[in-house]
Amino acid sequence: QARLYLNTYALNLSLISVGYEKARQAVLSAEEQLMTGGRISLSSDEAKVDDLFMQYKLGELAQGFRNAEQNAAAMHFFKAKPLIDRSAVFRFLQQMPKGAVLHLHNSAAVSSKWVVQNMSYMPGMLRCTDAQGRSRLTFRRAAKQHGCSSQYVQVAEERRNSIDPALYDENLERLFNLYTPVPELEYPTITAVWNRFQGMFDTLTEAIYYLPAFRAYHWQLLEELFNDNVMYAELRVGLHELYDASGRTFPKEQAVRELLQLNEKFVRLHPNFLGIKLIHAVWRGADEQKMRQNVAEFKLLQSIFPDFLVGFDLVGQEDKGKPLYEQISALKELPSNTRLFLHAGETNWYSASTDINLLDALLLNATRIGHGFALVKHPILMNAVKTRQIAVELNPISNQVLHLVWDMRNHPGAQYMALDIPVVICNDDPGFWNAKGLSYDFYYAIMSLAPNNAGLRVLKSLAFNSVRYSALTEMEKQKAYKLLEYSWARFIEKVLQGKVF
Amino acid sequence: QARLYLNTYALNLSLISVGYEKARQAVLSAEEQLMTGGRISLSSDEAKVDDLFMQYKLGELAQGFRNAEQNAAAMHFFKAKPLIDRSAVFRFLQQMPKGAVLHLHNSAAVSSKWVVQNMSYMPGMLRCTDAQGRSRLTFRRAAKQHGCSSQYVQVAEERRNSIDPALYDENLERLFNLYTPVPELEYPTITAVWNRFQGMFDTLTEAIYYLPAFRAYHWQLLEELFNDNVMYAELRVGLHELYDASGRTFPKEQAVRELLQLNEKFVRLHPNFLGIKLIHAVWRGADEQKMRQNVAEFKLLQSIFPDFLVGFDLVGQEDKGKPLYEQISALKELPSNTRLFLHAGETNWYSASTDINLLDALLLNATRIGHGFALVKHPILMNAVKTRQIAVELNPISNQVLHLVWDMRNHPGAQYMALDIPVVICNDDPGFWNAKGLSYDFYYAIMSLAPNNAGLRVLKSLAFNSVRYSALTEMEKQKAYKLLEYSWARFIEKVLQGKVF
Predict the structure, then answer these.
(1) Which residues belong to the signal peptide in this entry (chains A, B) (predicted)?
(2) Which of residues 18-57 of B touch A (CB under 8 A)?
(3) Which of A137, A252, A489, B119 could cysteine-pair with A207, CB 3.0–4.6 Å?
(4) Residues in chain A closer than 8 A to B406 (CB atoms)
């Protein structure tokens, strides 16, 4: 029985027969039980941790209610971040095992600070400017390969010659970080922020596919997830050829192989980390011929790495890109067992091609939905998602920074959770907006999307959901649950020992 | 069968048996039929008007899609207004019979321009400053009566002595108009805008209750509704005693009687206007004793004006005010046949006292819900509202100006309409934010809340809903429907004669 709504039993009770208080309590409990995590029972230790957590959570919310200028739950991430960094709730979330992150783009996954402090100090990094006036970073010498229209400059030399190298690095970081203290002024429209955002991929991607950078960057990616108590990731990768200092290039297959090897090495070093798998992500604006090529390429790579490259997706600004509907004939060439993790409904438009992507994603039998921001306006599709247990990959901070929602308490994830529609909390492109790991998104999930009185039940559900709705095999899932249960138990102990708060 | 969601029949059709296209079309049609107005059939003339309307609507949306800086549907009203004023869709909506407005506060109902140009030119208007530094306008001489802490100044004299009387009037208007070209800067938080908003009632209310002003003001109120093709209003009034130039005062009963007489006179002059009825609105923060007094007063007035004063409500910033739950014992003193039109869920908080007001409103058997912005997060209550046919009074611009939502396409009204939950479009306090009549709110309803492809079916439903969910008696409703049908038919003719576009 997968009805989204309970019936109105409680509200139809006559006040005379059960009394106002009883009817009131019945509805409140029914809503609590209906929501994500509502029917989880907590152990007595967990209940103690929940009590503790709720003290901090309610304290911070009360503070935010009294002083709207300090109400992190309602503020833009760029303004809220200093508050979040001081928050006890946030420290709790950082240490809490969060399971998996299932929506994360590799080229925007690593904190921009690391990119500046490490990658940009690698010998050989060059900067040039393309026809649109955007900086492009590369380690490759041949201009035509990456669309430069200006001369190259050595980043190391520019930095040396600058008045203030620290300031140089700050400005360099701004090339791939959207942070501004006044997002409402700097990004007045969705187009303004998407233009800069899309440009940041152009700035950075080529540099990342320089073999030594590629290895260091993805190692750091794993480190940042691991350090944030994430144990597994399904990484959307836009695969490109690799190149090295001698000018040699390596096919995309080599990029996958490198990631596989890095992953194996990282997992050996960190037995509590389960590793990553890849989702092959291609540009949604491609023409039919190019899309058929992408599909063929995916088939080939999938046959080589059947357990590592687990699915397919289309990426790029959904509003401006081609609708899924136009790509269907190419997508039908995918093997019938291909798992699709499709971006759909990342929009504020209603009944436009972007939100109708949700319908096509479901008809294409998608395994999960990326964003699904607009799903909330499509009751029939929302019901299908719940019935078929198709998880929605929520990216709260991404949706805010990229101009879909201002006050995060209006994020539709709140409603998905209220209805126990399967959701997983994801971080999308944390490196591009001053975040790191998954905890900042979890902060908004529990402080802004969940009801005020929701605590450990919701958090635990979200963590376990991330395994449940992953593309892990059944056997891998068993291992993942075991590991998550183990880390969860250790975390609960740690809280009770006073090591978290 | 009052299920909110259709089942997933269409989506479960196997693609082999019916084909992708058919399944796709089935879902799209099912969603269209499910929504507000989805099952209305249009006459052939109406269908022609719909086609015409859709050309303009889709044209303006396409323009907004191409140029986000000019996308009125997504912009704050203060920024969008010049665009809306030039919009053909808006001109259509202005001339369209909109039926009734069921949520409108008398002290903020009249355009601020009129108040400046007319009321402030009445002889005897004084200005003073209260302890909070707010200007207060009055025609009464005794300072203690209206909380002034400064000396009085004659508005006429101030104006005469000012360097530029036009500039003086502009500044005077700012005292009761929230307009600013940069709302995102001037009102960074809900508290900032509510403080100014609440203060504006303090500035203006006393001046309105000066008998000559009271008459002129409420006459203008009727004019503005009538001129905007609204035919009936249920006005929330905070009743105060009246006073005149000689210092005499008149009890609240007299204020009701004045409104009744104005109304009768106005209706005689405009046979196509049905008139107004009143909802007695009291401050939600009152203590129990005061609330009991309010209830007693309402009972008395209701016995005098049984057909004119038709219901009861509590007003004031809901987040900061007392929850309904605390007022229940006083509210239970109301006669059991009292119709309650309760503000509830005007908030972004989730599971706080403000949104739990929704539950109490339903348990108190409210006739309609004011705002219900947070209802969307309460699936069980949402179901109850639909099952019991309790209309939600949507106030799109109010919710935006008062900081609940930025991009109107995120307004929960979109979801209520998707689910055919009963809604009526209202304007709340248009005089305080540079609006006039109901057409601006209708503009957002059709351009931002409704799906792109929704046209006359939705508009017609919204107009007819406003009669259906009004507090008119059955006989009055019959008359209202007739009148609305008549004006609707004349409007359709007018469009076809090319007099609208």
Answers:
(1) none
(2) 20, 23-24, 27-28, 30-31, 34
(3) A137
(4) 405-407
**pLDDT tens string A394-439:** 999 999 999 999 999 999 999 999 999 999 999 999 999 999 999 9
Question: Which residues of A are marked as active site?
Answer: 346, 371
Domains of chain B: 35-104+216-501 (3.20.20.140)
- Tokens, residue A410: 């209006």
Q: Which residue has the higher pLDDT, A190 or B146?
A: A190
What pLDDT was estimated at residue A147? 76
Distance in angstroms (rounded) separating the CA atoms of residues B370 and B279: 12
Q: Decide if A11 and B384 are in contact by the 8 Å CB cutoff.
A: yes
Q: Is A410–B387 a contact, with Cβ atoms under 8 angstroms apart?
A: no
Cβ neighbours of B74 in A, within 8 Å: 189-190, 348
Instruction: Give the C-alpha separation, B111 to B176, whole Å.
Output: 10
State both tokens at B318: 């809901």
Pairing type for strands B242-243 and B230-237 reads unpaired
Tell me whether residue B371 is one of the annotated catalytic residues.
yes
Q: What is the three-state SS of B28-51?
A: HHHHHHHCCCCCCCCCHHHHHHHH
For residue A79, the distance in angstroms to the closest alpha carbon of chain B comes to 11
Structure token pair of residue A159 = 């930095």
Work out the mean pLDDT of chain B and round it to a whole number: 94
Number of Cβ within 10 Å of residue A335's Cβ equals 11
User: What are the phi and psi torsion angles at A279 (to 5°)?
Assistant: -115, 120
Q: Which of B6, B23, B68 is facing A363, going by the closest CB pair?
A: B23
Is residue B190's pLDDT more than 70? Answer: yes
| Predicted local confidence at residue A11, as pLDDT | 53
Q: By the 8 A CB rule, do B98 and B228 touch?
A: yes
Check if the beta carbon of residue B55 is closer than 8 Å to that of residue B455: no
Mean pLDDT in residue range B122-150: 87
Which tens digits make up the pLDDT trace of A361-376?
999 999 999 999 999 9
Mean per-residue pLDDT of chain A: 94
pLDDT at residue A286 greater than cutoff 60: yes
Q: What is the DSSP string of B273-295?
A: --EEEEEEEEETT--HHHHHHHH
d(CA A286, CA A295): 11
pLDDT tens, position by position, B57-67: 999 999 999 99
Long-range contacts of B298-302 (CB under 8 A, 24+ apart): B298/B334, B298/B338, B299/B334, B299/B335, B300/B253, B301/B239, B301/B252, B301/B253, B301/B256, B302/B335, B302/B338
Task: Say whether A11 and B454 touch across the interface (CB within 8 A).
Answer: no
